[in-house]
Protein 1
Amino acid sequence: MKIQERINQLVKYISKRAISAIIIPSNDPHFSEYVSAHHKCREYISGFTGSAGTVVITAKGGGLWTDSRYFIQGEEQLAGTSLDLMKMALPTTPTISDYLLSNLKKCDAVAVDAKLYSVADFNSLKAELSGLNLIAIDDIFEELWNDREPLPKEPIISMGAIIAGENRVSKLSRVRKALNITTDKFYLVSALDEVAWLLNIRGSDIEFNPVVIAYCIIEHSNATLFIDKNKISEEFEANLNRKGVEVQEYSEVDSYMSQQRCKTLICNTQKTNRHIYDIAVNSGVRIVEEEGVSVISHLKSIKNSKEIEGFEKAMIEDGVALVKFNIWLEEALQNGGVTSELEVSAKLKKYRERSLLYKGPSFDPIVGYKMNGAIVHYSVTPDSSQLITKDGMLLMDSGGQYECGTTDITRTIHLSTPTPQEKIDFTLVLQGNIDLANSVFFKGMRGSQLDILARRALLAHGINYLHGTGHGIGHYLNVHEGPQSIRMEENSVVLKEGMVISNEPAMYRRGEYGIRTENILVVVPHCKNEFGEFLKFQTLTLFPIDTHCVVVDMLTVEQRSWLNNYHKKVYDKLSTHLTPKESVWLTLKTKQI
């Protein structure tokens, strides 16, 4: 069925039900960053395959709201449909709420799938659409989408405490204590990475994120995992039962909620969908809203010693793979060969796959050559892929999921002789990376208070980047993990010992090149004295930085010392895992400056 036929079918469906408009976001019921094929309803109805966007359909038309990453792609994929491309953040583009208010009559019904909107977002949208009737409905694509992919059915992985550093009984106990869960209370865990962390399970239901589609209910003395039971062996289910965790079918969570009359549900309204919330409320369940960041998100963000050891092991695996990859790239170009962004992306995965611990990519790699490197979240396609020759800047942002940890690294390399401007730009970015990595800060500081360190050198030259400097990273979990961050915008979450976070200052010259240097950091103790308690960062990532792009005289003594010490560490950690030829290559790349 063509896209416009799908749209026409949907318009007829909602019109029969006196619905004037429907909003279709990119979500799943757990508000995951990536979603399974089963939940790609927005893609099904619009044909737009980008990772972010919201479709609005009315009887007279509609549109797709997406950001600047997808303006070109959106125009191409919406061609031939009745949907207009709504370019977000432009002054001429109305918000979804403004669009609906100007195109509908007072009291017209606007529908959303109750499972695809959190309680908080639904309430916010309802306030914005004052005068219209916002209603929550069931999943209409169950009826309209004939060849819809079923929910994933791959088996789950049990992650032992020897890797996780803590068993599931201990984690459940800590959550119960933090929330004061008594006999008349229960807590809903909806976010997939929180369920995975809590019960030490992993899976492959969501691309890039090693999670399983499930809910977990925590009660005073037991817990219930709601999941497709075909994914769990009888032996593992018995093990969970012995640890106080009952297993029920994923669909049974609705029935469970309807039977909890007069009990108190503790839930985070940012992570709880409207469907499950309404069942609880209509069944006489009292609601206590968990304010702010969820307790599990906080607990998960602070890695224990075993998890940090796992990260260190993953960095060695990743570093070795990247050494082998970069040698391949250099030899291919030196021998007169021509490669492409698509081939480089595939090769990055191929070299990581040689590790026995590798489980898959942690995100869709960004490989941007020359001007494509200036597109912040560039995603290479067969149509956009540039041929790479021995000339100019190449930006590569990639990562892997290993059974012991998660990696995320960006390196920008020059394939010939950098221009003076390219070297200055590269050095300014490097200075920001070093200054943040080398910082000492007092306990209780937030990422927003440190962000200036990564930007200071760039700002002095009238340069800035608009994305964040650092995001939290999961332990063999989501590569983008909260609640901590380092960015210009305020975030009340303080940085604590054991938090793992990225360090990725950058600069982009539109139409020319982009430069980003990214390492992963962990927060560690620095000292404690009469002035207070102080923390610092330890850099975990292990791979050289392209020193032939560096203006050495621009570096301070401290910055040069950091870079030389970092490269010594890279060589010491990786060289014993390499062949003699590879070790020689690494010796040259980590040469002291």
Protein 2
Amino acid sequence: MKIRFKKRKNKKIYASVFRSYTAVVVLVLMLACLFSYNLVRAYVYKHHSGELLKQAATIAADASEAPDWNTLKKYQKLLDARIIYVNARYRAVFSEDPDVKDEYGDVLITVKSIESENDRRIVDETLRGEKKTGISRIDFLALDAIYASIPLYNSSGEQYGGLIVACPANSVNGIWKHIITSMMMAALLAMAFVTAVTTALARRFTEPLSNMKDAALKMAEGDYTTRVKIFKDDEIGKLGVSINLLSERLEEVVQNLRDEKCKLEMVLENIGEGLVSCDRTGKIIHVNNSALAFLEISSWDSSNTPFESEKKEIILSLLKRCMENGAQENDTFKNRSQRDILILATPILNAEGLLLGGVCLLRDVSEEIRLEMRRREYIANVSHELRTPLTGIRGMIEPLIDNILETEEEKQDSYRIIDKEAARLEKMIGEMLELSRLQDGKNTQALERVDLLLPVGSAVHATRMLAEKAGIQLVFETDGEVFVFGVENRIQQLIMILLDNAISFTPEGGKITVSIQKGKCKALVKVKDTGVGIEPKHLPYIWERFYKADTSRMRTTGTGLGLAIAKCIVEMMGGCISVQSEPGAGTEFTVRLKYFDET
């Protein structure tokens, strides 16, 4: 039985490997991007803050007492930053725009009080003499900035304030956005490259496995001719070699099983016995041709007559009974042709003794029954034929012993009867021995060249007086010399048996014709009479021992062995004998013998 598997559209192994590889690579890329993002971000801010701190130190070196705003104007434009002076009173002095002048022509200065705690924290760090950089919101400027703060000292070395250089964070964010964009482009390119590489790697890894899967599915469906292509000599390659070896072994085993199955089926289909098997539920699973022939039906499942259905029911009930009892059951029935069929039903058990089903053997025992009846009839016939002459002999001996017979003439009559019955008994025993020797093949003679005219003519001459005494005309016809393979004395014995049989069944005034003819392939010897004939129902059995068609029509009492001996003689010489008869019109026996070939 073949098992069909539905093939999925997606290749599960390939998809799993591809997703796994892609997930790992994407995760690594994300971690790398995140790490690079933090690293670059820290580097950018640190670098920018460091530059601001250096510029602040340069400006602080030039502003020992008071800031020169005209000089700071250059720094402020160059750095695109705010330069702010702070003092201990939390006053911030700075220029909003160095290009804006007051009424005296000096740079317009803005002074603001630092109120925010965050701003004061930055000022406090500066006033404590610390150099600081950072990113923070500067409230008095209303600006998100990167700043650098540095203390200011006068020429005496005393701190009188601090300097804060604040650059808008937007300027750094523009750089950072450009870096982020570049990193995203690089990440996308890396993803495309990784996807291509992952696809190639996944395909290279999963293609052998996919081939193995397809091969395994074909093997499961019964196709053992498929083979797996081996790509590399690694673990997967060795697995492919193992699958190929398994496929070869399975193909060999399955082929052997198929051959054995075919042989078994041929044996079961062609054996003379009929076979009917069923499973454990009683369902018929196999019926061979012989079983159908015995039942005289075309197929088990076809609609049958009540008579045929009754015979099938006998088989089914016998199978059911044998499976229930766990022992062999038997029965017999007669089919439509009146043949006796023996049924033997046996349960089928596995190695553990569990019931698998049942099998029924049908055998034609008509011939066995007929042979048994023939054996009984033969014994009865022999007993009867022997008893008849013995009864006559004893019937004559007893008066002689008791001296009942007074005259010599009566005694001589008794002696003649005893002699006649003894001769009859001797003849019958001789014929029985002769028939046994012929059937056993113990009394064989070498075939030689024989002219049919001699033995046939001798037989006709020997029986002519007996025919004339019975008032029967005996005619001998021949086409001339005809040479055959045979034994001369056996041919003469054969013709005498046929003539004796014809004389016995031909009434007075009848005619017997013996003829020798040249056939196309064989020589023909025919013995034809105008006697009472043989009824068709007796024709198949006249060659059997002691068979007598109708004793009331016989002129003399025969033993019923003549025709059986005649058939054995003809077959011994490689010929054949046949009979044609019509009741009331006569009988014709035809003997066919092989021509003698001088070459």
Protein 3
Amino acid sequence: MIRQDIRNLCIIAHVDHGKTTLVDHLLKQGGLFAAHEKTEDRMMDSNALERERGITILAKNCSVNVKGVKLNIVDTPGHADFGGEVERIIGTVDGAVLLVDAAEGPLPQTRFVLEKALKMGHKIILCINKVDRPEVQVGDRIQDVVNQVFDLFVELGASDEQCDFPIVYAVAREGWCTQNFDDVPLLLKGEKKGSLEPLFDLVLNRFKGPTVDPDGVFTMQLSNLSWSNFVGQLSVGRVIAGKVRKGQEIFRLGVKPNGEKFSEKFNVTKLFTYSGNREVETEELTAGDIGIVAGNDNVFIGDTLGGSTEIEMFSRIQVQEPTLRMIFSINSSPLSGKEGEAIQSRKLRERLERECRANVAVQMEEGDSTDQYFLLGRGELQFAILIETMRREGLEFMVGRPVVRMIKNDAGEKQEPVERAVLYLPDAFTGAVTEMFQNRKGVLAHYENMPANRVKLVFDIPSRGLLGIRSSYLTATRGEGLFSSELVGYEPYKGEMLHRKNGAIIADRTGKTTEYALSSIEERGVLFLNPGTEVYEGMVIGEHSREQDLNVDPSKEKKLTNVRAAGSDGLTQLAGIRQMSLERSIEWLDDDEWIEVTPKNIRLRKKVLQSNLRSVTRSKKS
């Protein structure tokens, strides 16, 4: 039967197109909060890192009641590095609201998330957001974007029913939308008052309720995991058949690493459902509900929970294969254990395995030694978020440079992943950016003039070429450029590519940096450290202006004499220090270097610390 009192849907879009802001106003206008009640912006970004960075990292559930129907809404990430969150959650819903920026149009992640939704057979509601942007007030930009989205539907093989999608024009920040394009100017001027009611009505009429078997044996597939300090592991998913009550004895049906299926019996200790953006305890979950089951700490995403071992297991959740891998190691620096918990290999392995359990887009492989492990993922930002999370847990460890995963075709030829990079930038910087991407084996596939003296460039470029390019791109465009990419497949190896042109400035002894020493060193390059910073032999303190590495003494002090000379005792002024954040360090890192991560500091160092055991001449590294 079809449950008419529930609608399960997700909000999908490219990063920064307004998903989380739209969900905020859906919750407010759904009657969740009183008129006088004060609410935060981006309520669904509950993770501290999400609020700091202004992006959604984890897919999260919420609900709102509209006209007697409960809408279970999933807010999904828009960044390509977190595409696995979209892939694993898309199967729990019955429809999707696709947000597209009225000025930028469909971008790489728009294509990725739409393709996943169409493959699941979901119906789509198109929401053209940010129609108040000044760029879209010129010409027929909004209609052009609608046509681009329709072309994308056709290109992705959507059915006739899916292509016949309704359209709403919205400004999610102000909490209104309309199906009538002629009303947009009136709403923008304030001559007409709007709300999100047209979108609510479309959701109720366009999307069907979940098809369920209320009298069957309890069946539920896990699409998400969470943790509670009070009840332990929380298993999130949609109930497909039957019902489950608190205290009931059920089974976890899973798969061992060797592919063998197994079952495990446990008792349900707690049940939760969603009310707004909060988890509310309940006595029972029935078919069609998206809810939470507690009672088993060994669950994995993709496991099946059931009332019997005789039920058919769901197939495991499949996501796109990782394209990058990064090595994680225990901290072996001279400062190990002084600023956090210097974990040993066993605890490092347990922490990485826990991450793989909660994130289906991440995989782990054994390293070359017993205290090193490879983590496989999709992008530098995904690795940076995990590293920052582990750092805030008080752990000390080291990571190496991300490396692209190569494959071999049937003929034994080496192939590498190639991505399609879409760039929006002021046309004044086109020449510099084109040269930058072509130097990294990029091929210009498309050039288009955009409103407001901007251009759209599309490059097909090896994934290796995108490593470390984001900071250089933002510098070249003075922070005004937008940059996104998607994996398009594997092509023959493009040849060697120099990752970083300049060498490193390296401390040749242990001590504390002095202003006197740094003032002479800064003539040779760019410094990363301030005076008074503790350093050790082999630690990177800056970037050399030449290709080779440079060993220096950053702790040298000025010799004191009893002879005074005019002007010799003046203050030393350093030109400037380049602050190396975690992401910037990952981009800068080369193959023979580590990032030492502690709760208090991010340090760069050479893998071989002793200066007499390593050469200062850098060969080309691909």
